[in-house]
Design a protein that fits this description.
Blueprint (H helix, E strand, L loop, with lengths): L2 H13 L2 H8 L1 E6 L2 E2 L3 E6 L2 E5 L1 H13 L2 E6 L5 H6 L5 E6 L3 H4 L3 E2 L8 E6 L16 E5 L3 H9 L4 E5 L2 H9 L5 E5 H10 L3 E5 L12 E4 L4 H16 L2 H18 L7 H34 L3 H15 L3 H11 L8 H27 L2 H9 L4 H31 L11 H12 L4 H30 L2
Parallel strand pairs: 1-5, 1-6, 9-10, 9-11
Antiparallel strand pairs: 2-3, 3-4, 6-13, 7-13, 8-11, 8-12
Helix pairs in contact: 2-9, 3-9, 3-10, 11-12, 11-14, 11-17, 12-14, 13-14, 14-16, 15-16, 16-18, 17-18
């Protein structure tokens, strides 16, 4: 290192206050995706659900050395680095490989564990696939955005790489023969093989850059002081070989999780998911109807300005995916205002629903005969009173079925909030799949729960629709 480079580094180190900021607030916020045993996963201990695994022990050691409390923030794996960049978390951990591409966006600590790479295959294919060589021209699965995805894409000739957000989905794809093999970290592969008799593991023969092999902790760019302090703890972890003990401890929890993989045993997980799904849906329905009504009235307003705002909003929301809207509210607006994941999910779903409800209400208002408004005017009613007492009540009868469909769709579409770590039904479903190594049954249970919820809601909506039809 030249003298000028060293001086620049020291200046950056002196200017960076990341570590001091962490110590001042007394907490280190860590983003993770707890569906990746043995690195991080959820375990039911003494009736309480908590995140456990090797990475959790690593962070506990680091926080103890820093003298701060550890605070976890759960979200999908592909949102971890975004959480760092937008300030939702101080650091991210989750078996993250510090690839050169990722280093362009975030900084990384020293590697704290190198487990190696492997492939999961079906046990019935064990004679067919004995090494990576036999995977040429085959279908390879890998988690989207991971090192395993890039390796399979670039280093296995003729392969077709199928990416998915969750390893649990990839394992299901493997077991149903949608893919021939799954590229995965060796410790996770070993965990699956140990707990699923239908799977086997074969080694990889990748020749990798040593700086990209293994797991590291991610930081926001320029977090020099925090990174240096964390690396001191990592040096101790490596010198004392503490990760072996951390893995052994994770194995104990994995054994507890797989002692009883029946769905009734995980009823608390599903119950919590139902609770959050209903909360999000109920609040979003109320806010969505209120916003939709306002937007619909704005479209009928004489003011061209209000009319233009309503149209622009409706077209923009209807023209962009809900998932993107959820991520924008949580991460984008979160740069200015640090909104909790649940509140961000409710806001995003409500704003989305409002645009669709507005069009439903507009259609209902247009369906009311013009003669009704003319009759109201002849009776001396103002336009506001005509809309309130004559048009809207009649429009409600016409739009009730469409409005009911929107309510039902909202319950199902609210599942998208799981990507930002809201513990709704889909989020809990993926946790159960990761913990039990069962791919299909948790999906079936969640599907039936959604059916029951929507079936009950449909019957309630039909009851009120019949009452409206018979009302004089």
């Amino acid at each position: 290192m030249s003298m000028s480079t060293s001086t620049t580094h020291q200046t950056a180190y002196a200017a960076d206050q990341t570590l001091q900021h962490i110590k001042n607030k007394g907490t280190l916020v860590v983003a993770t995706s707890p569906d990746y045993p043995p690195y991080e996963f959820l375990a039911d201990t003494k009736g309480k659900e908590r995140i456990v695994g090797m990475d959790i022990k690593v962070m506990e050691k680091i926080c103890k050395d820093l003298g701060v409390k550890l605070k976890w923030k759960s979200m999908s794996y592909d949102s971890l680095l975004v959480a760092i960049q937008t300030g939702k978390a101080d650091v991210a951990i989750g078996g993250i490989n510090p690839t050169a591409k990722r280093r362009q966006s975030v900084d990384f600590s020293d590697i704290y564990y190198s487990g190696g790479q492997a492939f999961l295959i079906n046990k019935t294919d064990k004679a067919k696939f004995t090494s990576q060589k036999q995977l040429t021209n085959k279908k390879i699965g890998a988690q989207t955005g991971t090192l395993q995805y890039e390796l399979a894409k670039n280093k296995i000739k003729g392969s077709t790489v199928k990416g998915m957000d969750k390893n649990t989905d990839l394992v299901l794809a493997l077991k149903t023969h949608k893919i021939d093999a799954l590229g995965i970290e060796k410790p996770s592969a070993e965990a699956y093989v140990k707990n699923d008799p239908d799977l086997a593991m074969i080694p990889s023969s990748y020749h990798l850059n040593k700086n990209e092999i293994g797991a590291a902790i991610a930081f926001k760019k320029g977090s020099t002081t925090l990174e240096t302090a964390v690396n001191k703890s990592i040096a101790q972890i490596k010198s004392k070989n503490l990760t072996e003990g951390y893995l052994a401890d994770a194995g104990k929890y994995m054994k507890v999780n797989t002692n009883d993989t029946s769905m009734p045993h995980y009823w608390k997980y599903f119950a919590k998911g139902i609770e959050y799904t209903l909360i999000i849906s109920a609040v979003s329905v109320v806010l969505g109807v209120a916003l939709g009504t306002l937007l619909a009235l704005m479209r009928f307003a004489k003011s061209k300005f209000l009319h233009a705002i309503a149209i622009a909003y409706i077209e923009f929301v209807r023209g962009t995916p809900l998932m993107v809207q959820v991520m924008f509210v949580y991460f984008g607006i979160g740069i200015i205002v640090n909104l909790p994941a649940l509140l961000s999910g409710i806001i995003a779903v409500s704003l989305n629903s409002g645009a669709y409800v507005a069009e439903i209400i507009r259609g209902g208002i247009n369906s009311v005969s013009k003669g009704q408004t003319e009759a109201s005017a002849s009776l001396g009613l103002t336009k506001t009173d005509t809309m309130r007492y004559v048009v809207l009540p009649q429009a409600l009868k016409n739009i009730w079925p469409a409005l009911g469909n929107e309510f039902i769709s909202l319950i199902k579409e609210s599942s998208i909030v799981s990507i930002i770590g809201v513990t709704d039904l889909i989020y809990q479903l993926n946790i159960v799949r990761a913990d039990t190594y069962r791919g299909v049954m948790p999906v079936f249970v969640a599907m039936m729960i959604y059916f029951v919820i929507t079936f009950i809601l449909t019957r309630i909506l039909n009851f009120y629709e019949r009452k409206m039809k018979h009302a004089k």
